[in-house]
Structures are given as C-alpha cells and as structure tokens.
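Hi V.,

You were right to ask for the full record rather than a summary. Here it is.
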Amino acid sequence: MKVQTGYLYHIKDEFFDVVNDESLMTNHERGKQRPTYFTIKDNNILWFIPLSSKVEKYKKIMNNKIKKYGFCNTIFIREILNEKSVILFQNAFPTLEKYIDHVHIINGAPAKVGSILKNEILNNFKHLLKLKSRGYNVFFTDIDKIKKQMLDELEIKK
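Predicted structure:
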C-alpha cells in the first residue's frame, strides 16, 4: 500500500494492543471502525490525526480554550468530504504502515483532503511539534514514547 500525506486511513486494532496506551482515542461505537485519521508520512513514521463527526461536542471545548487562552490550535473544525469534521491535533500519535487497516474510500476512490486544508493541517501540526520540543506539550498521548516504540519495532525488523 502506498501511504500518502493528506489521505484518510483506518488503523488496525493490533496497534492499540501493542502500544497499550489508555490515552489514545479508541472508538468502536455501534460496530463502526475506529476514527478516520488524517495521515502525515514522515519517513518510516506515520502521524495519525483523528477526525471526529462530533462537531457540537468539540465546538464547546474549542470555545472554552478560546475563552481561556484567546485561541485554540489543538482542535480545528473544517469541512472534509463535504461534511463538517473535527480535526483533533491533541489526539495525534505516531504509528507504522504495518498498522494501517485500510484507506478510507468514498465513491470507490481513496479519500483525501484538499490541498489548502492539507497545508493548513501540516503547518499547524509542525507548529505543535515545535511547541512540544520547547517544552509545551499539547498532546494527550506520550508521542515521544510511542514514536520510540515504533522506531524500536523497525530496528527489530532489520
């Protein structure tokens, strides 16, 4: 499978079993797949940013953050595939290609976001990673620990 930045994917349950991190979003509501993820390819590591359809729930959280800090860069609400979607940067995590279950399909074609939104997501995510490197962590999961675990898996495989 050719994994590309900006496409939407689903992840295998196996990843959550291997990582065993309760701070990761897990969603098996009503027999549905786990969330759809916007994917960023970064060499051998893939960054998965969950998408949610629970716009009203996250709009309240965003508004609280805006009241408190004057802005919110951990949650975006944007139109993806002609529907309002929540982009949950705060729930992002690294993974490997082997944990991808499948690409999200719409009308028989792999789903991806438009180039303007893709660039907005990439720029914001890079900014959040820079903040983390400076000691301001906005991620719910320990992304450094998971990334090390994924890179260790790659080393074992060699």
